[in-house]
Design goal:
The protein is an all-alpha fold. It is 78% helix and 0% strand. Helix 3 packs parallel to helix 5 (83-93). The protein is globular and about 50 Å long. The chain starts with a helix and ends with a helix.
Length: 181
């Protein structure tokens, strides 16, 4: 990884880090209501469906594309918006090759996960059964790696839009639950 790419990552991370820090309480409270979750899942599905018609134009990652992808990550602070879905779909719609869209989205994830773990370390350390954490960590790691493998294969085969139908169904079920209860 070169310095220029690292600069793109920093630019892509800056919007979500800033908004997440400044509006942490508001963002966390938005997870309490199922209505926006269902609506935003359907919106995420629409974004993924749009990738069906996105043709890679071999557009290189540059400063403005990194910033726009970073702004897509800001949207993913809300419940129902997939972070990977938003960043990868945005990159594809900007003409970035699928493999590069996957790589950039993954590298944008790492600081967010590490930063979140650092912020939550105090709470994690105070849990009564830390051995359970190791088991949970192992399962999460295995599941995460398998999911990344599937996501990468799906992207390379240009079938990311398939996930849209899952999101439409789950979003509709969430809305039905909201209105039914």
């Amino acid at each position: 990884m070169n310095w220029r790419y690292l600069g793109f990552l920093m630019l892509g991370l800056a919007p979500a880090a800033t908004v997440g820090f400044l509006f942490k309480d508001i963002i966390e409270s938005s997870f309490e209501d199922p209505l926006p979750v269902g609506l935003l899942m359907i919106l995420t599905g629409a974004l993924l469906l749009a990738t069906k018609w996105a043709r890679p134009r071999n557009m290189p990652l540059n400063w403005w594309r990194a910033l726009i992808i970073g702004l897509a990550q800001v949207c993913a602070l809300l419940p129902g918006i997939s972070r990977s879905g938003a960043t990868i779909a945005t990159a594809l719609l900007l003409g970035v090759e699928p493999e590069e869209a996957f790589r950039f989205s993954f590298f944008m994830l790492l600081p967010a996960v590490i930063g979140s773990a650092i912020l939550d370390a105090k709470d994690i350390a105070s849990l009564p059964h830390p051995a359970w954490l190791l088991g949970g960590f192992a399962v999460a790691l295995a599941t995460g790696l398998a999911s990344l493998w599937v996501l990468r294969k799906t992207l390379i085969s240009r079938r990311l839009f398939w996930f849209a139908f899952y999101l439409f169904a789950v979003g509709a079920a969430s809305l039905a639950f909201f209105f039914w209860r």
